[in-house]
Amino acid sequence: MAANQLYYFHVLILLSAIFFIICTSANADCQYTVHVKTDPRRDAGTDSIISLSLYDNANFSGGGVVVKNLESWGAMGPGHDYFEGGNLDIFSGQAPCLAKPVCFMILKSDGTGNKPAVDEPPYSLTVYRNKCGNSKTMNISEDVPLPLSSVV
């Protein structure tokens, strides 16, 4: 009987350790959501690959969140054509949480594709901390220009 109790004790310890690892890993991720409004002018938009970088400091130390192809976070459904004239596109994905709130963002075009990227700031950026209920929203308007050409 003592051997069975010892076995169950070890199984309980193992399951507790696995649960702790899963919970610890889940708490290290944040859900990031970005809304990008493309200029409505005729022929505005791009087929270029757009990347997104988020940092919690202006000197880019300590890493950051880098999405090499923002379309991989696309939340508009299958077959949607992102970054086309007048579109408000939504992108959402999980990545490691930054130590502090986002204070610097770079949208960058690789210059490829049928149309070059048009200079248009992101509409808004929302960062949600995983399962905490806390959020920090940065609204970026026309008053804070972030032309793609300046960050390439």
TrEMBL record:
- Please give the Pfam families that the UniProt record associates with this protein: ATS3 (PF06232)
- InterPro entries (UniProt xref): Embryo-specific_ATS3 (IPR010417), PLAT/LH2_dom_sf (IPR036392)
- Could you name the domain of life of the organism this protein comes from? Eukaryota
Record key words, sorted = Signal
Signal peptide coordinates = 1-28
According to UniProt, the name of this protein is: PLAT domain-containing protein 1
